[in-house]
Amino acid sequence: MLLTRGLEERLEILLKQGHLVGSVYRSLGQEATAVGSAFALGPGDWLAPSIRDMGALFVRGLDVRDMLRQYTARGTSLCAGKDNITHFTVPELGLLGPVSPLGTQLCVLNGVALAFKQRRQPNVCMTYQGEGASRTGASHEGFSLAAALDLPIVVWLEHNRWAFGTRSDRQSAVEDWLDAAAMYGVPAESVDGNDVTAVYAGARKAVDRARAGGGMTILVAETYRMHGHAQHDAQKYVPAEELEEWRDRDPIDRCEVALHETGASAEELAVIRREVAAELDLAVDDVLAEPGPEGEEARTRVYASADLDALVPWTRGPVPGYGDLAPHLRAEA
Ligand SMILES: Cc1ncc(C[n+]2csc(CCOP(=O)(O)OP(=O)(O)O)c2C)c(N)n1
Questions:
Q1: CA within 20 to 30 Å of 180's CA: 11, 54, 174, 305, which one?
Q2: What is the residue with the minimal CA distance to atom 21 of ligand 1?
Q3: pLDDT tens, 194-213?
Q4: Centre of ligand 1 from the C-alpha of residue 311, in Å
Q5: Concatenated DSSP letters of 241-309
Q6: Is the predicted pLDDT of residue 87 greater than 90, yes or no?
Q7: Whose C-alpha lies nearest to ligand 1, atom 13?
Q8: Would you state the pLDDT for residue 85?
Q9: The domain 2-288 belongs to what CATH superfamily?
Q10: Predicted confidence band at 333 (pLDDT cuts at 50, 70, 90)?
């Protein structure tokens, strides 16, 4: 959780310094949901995060440098600089990248879960959806199919109260989001999403059930998005009292209190904080020194059968060596 929060804090700074392409979508206040849940998976299982589940990726073995390379679009990144944030798939780690049209990701992961089932492979899939995403048609199709086919899948409905600037009670008439989950006819449980051990316990039960052939479970994580949607969003629409109230339920603070209660000393916890900070500082320095992508990279690992040289360059300005390919565009410009 500290790694996620620390990295996101550094990413905000790097964005302001002009090192990032795109934005930063913080998981501030939600780190426990991503981290606690992913610990319940085992080797060969697959996980499909939302943009706010970076912590789950680290639990599944992703290197913090890989995430930095993504955000800074280094040539060394998993997408060779073509995309940013968590938009990548790593089959060796069982990671399926977020699919941008909300709600559709579950449908894609259903395919992985169906393959596990058809091959009688004892593996499980886990994914996450905001309550906003869960209101899309695609999401309903995904839930319905997974439930009907008893797929080995655990779906987190991250009830973090906001979808961009829209409150969750403006998205749905249900008061308890467990009711929304229960309509699919599979077990559904509400979990304190800001308590990492409660999240793990909920996930453990659901993963074990799916692995034993018991099908899908939906887990509603009660949590809160403590930051705006992305960096451009100052979340002025959020009542200050609401933020205060949830700040008192911060998942990292709560974890620290729980660790103290089980005997961890203040010094032990301070050592963890220092180690994480040192690891992140080193990783930032190293990754910023790595090169950006070569132009040729744009042609690799993309779906295109056309001769790229024959296509109009992605600019309206003059392009040396391309002749007068797009005079109409230049005239407009
Ligand atoms: C079908 C679709 N509509 C709109 C968007 C733009 N969009 C991206 S994230 C987002 C808010 C998502 O809210 P929620 O699902 O509750 O997740 P949260 O951001 O709260 O984690 C929106 C509207 C999109 N990506 N796909």
A1: 54
A2: 130
A3: 999 999 999 999 999 999 99
A4: 33
A5: HHHHHHHTT-HHHHHHHHHHHTT--HHHHHHHHHHHHHHHHHHHHHHHTS----GGGGGTTS---S-GG
A6: no
A7: 163
A8: 85
A9: Thiamin diphosphate (ThDP)-binding fold, Pyr/PP domains (3.40.50.970)
A10: very low
Structure tokens at 181: 């989950």
| Residue to mutate, 26, 30, 160, 164, ligand 1, most ligand atoms under 8 Å from C-beta | 164
Both tokens of residue 133?
């995403």
Residue 106 tokens, joined: 């579950």
Residue with tokens 């879960």: 113
Q: 170: Cβ below 6 Å to ligand 1?
A: no
Could you tell me the residue ranges of all domains in the chain? Answer: 2-288, 307-332
Nearest atom in ligand 1 to 30's CA: 21
Our answer on whether the CB atom of 195 is closer than 6 Å to any ligand 1 atom is no
**Does the pLDDT of residue 235 top 90, yes or no?**
yes
* d(C-alpha 73, C-alpha 135), whole Å: 32
- Is the CB–ligand 1 distance for residue 227 below 6 Å? no
